[in-house]
Amino acid sequence: MTDIVDRLRTVDISWSQEGELCAWAADEIIKLREDKKLAFELMDVFIKETNRAKKVLHRIAKMQSAQKIAQDALEKE
User: Residue 22's closest CA among 13, 14, 35?
Assistant: First the structure.
């Protein structure tokens, strides 16, 4: 299957306004693909940072729980 950009680029731009539009459309598709790639990279970074933050919050909750247990044990003595 031929890529749409390749098909658009094969239109002879010297003969018609449609050819110029096809060349413009091919450029726009390439830009959109690059933007999509960047968006996925940013989404990956966001997911990794979100997961890291969740792990930190989980550790903080464990520490607070351990601190509460220790405090309760000291108060019972």
Answer: 13
